[in-house]
Amino acid sequence: MAPTIALAGNPNSGKTTLFNALTGARQHVGNYPGVTVEKKEGTYSDQRGQIHIVDLPGTYSLTAYSLEEVVARDYLVDENPRVVINIVDASNLERNLYLTLQFLEMGIPVCIALNMMDVAKNRGVSIDSDKLSDILNIPVVPTIARSGMGKKELMASAFWLTRRNEQPSPLNISYGDDVDPVLEKMTRDIRKPGLLQGRYLPRWVALKYLENDEQVISLGRKENPEVSNQLEERVARLADHLKRTLSTYPEAVIADHRYGYIRSLIRQGVISMEGDQDRLHLSDKIDRVVTHRFLGPIMMAAVLFGLYHVTFTFSETPVGWLEGFFGWLGGMVDANLADGLFKSLITAGIIDGVGGVLGFVPLIMLMFFGISILQDSGYLARVAFMLDRVFRVFGLHGASVMAFIVSGGIAGGCAVPGVMATRTLKSPKERLATLLTVPFMNCGAKLPVFALLVGAFLSEGRAGAMFLITVISWGGALLVARLLRSTAIRGESTPFVMELPPYRFPTFKGLLIHTWERTWQYIKKAGTIILSISVLLWAMMTFPGLSEPETEVYNNAREALMAAEGPSVMAELESQTAPETLSESAVTLNAQLASLDAQQAEARLKNSIAGRIGTALEPVSRLAGFDWRTNIALVGGFAAKEVVVSTLGTAYSLGEVDTGESGSLGDVLSASPAWSPLVAWSLIIFIIFYAPCFVAVVCIAREAGSWKWGAFSMLFNTLLAFTLAVAVFQIGSALGF
Amino acid sequence: MQPINMRRMKKHQSGTITAITADGELGRRIRDMGLIPGAHVKIQGRAPLYDPVALRVMGFTLTLRNSEADFIEVEVD
Question: Using the beta-carbon criterion (under 8 Å), do A497 and B60 form an inter-chain contact?
Answer without folding.
Answer: no
